[in-house]
Amino acid sequence: MVAHAEQRPTVVLVPGAWQRSCVFDVVQDKLQLLGYPTVLVDHLSTGAEPPTIELPDDVDNLHKVLQQLVDEERDIVVVAHSYGGVVASCAVEGLDVPTLQKAGKTGGVIMLAYLSAFVLPKGASLMDGLHGQWLPWQKVEGDYCGTTNEADVFYNDLSVAEQKKWTATMTHMPVAVFKSSCTYEPWHAMPCMYVFCTNDNAIPLAMQTGMADQMGSITTYSIQSSHSPFLSSPDDVIKAVELAARTGEEKKSLM
After folding, report:
1. Tell me, which fold does domain 5-253 have in CATH?
2. What is the pTM of this model?
């Protein structure tokens, strides 16, 4: 029997760069069948015309969504992919359970799960994380940043037909989002988790491990997948989300 939705944390799914939130459609459907209210959040920067949107704009966009859920007194699990990890790190500031409890409020973000996502120290930008060099598959033209070789970089464990389908949905990002600095380190204030994608060609496993290590003692989970496990391994993503929710609820009960 599926539990009532109000008994489950609300899961907020945040995509990475170049991809829209539709990549999470299958995961969202599966989560809702399990009784998890689920919200998809697109970045303002994804496909922005003109390409003038910066990281703070995406942060504010996500923060507003989370604030509304907090106002509804919901427990929230944020699952952020790739670039979305930087957005989520900043957007959850002030919305962790301990901070909200001190203000006499119920609910809040009980877990932030980084899904093969960037974890940046405060003051660092994505370009800092890339050591100031664009990657070979990033195509930069003026203020636009696109991608090349998407099938191998993002979708290397999908069929050719699926690779073509999802490559066609990808769009550009403003160069500015890669140069904006992270403003918050949430792992000092709330439970965090890292979900490793072991066959990721966009963010290699060694890089994922290095970023996860800087957060100290956190929950971890591994999926044998490409950079897009929500497409190739949705059931494994569901297991990771359930672990995130369970762990977050357990930690909240101890606060």
Report:
1. Rossmann fold (3.40.50)
2. 0.95
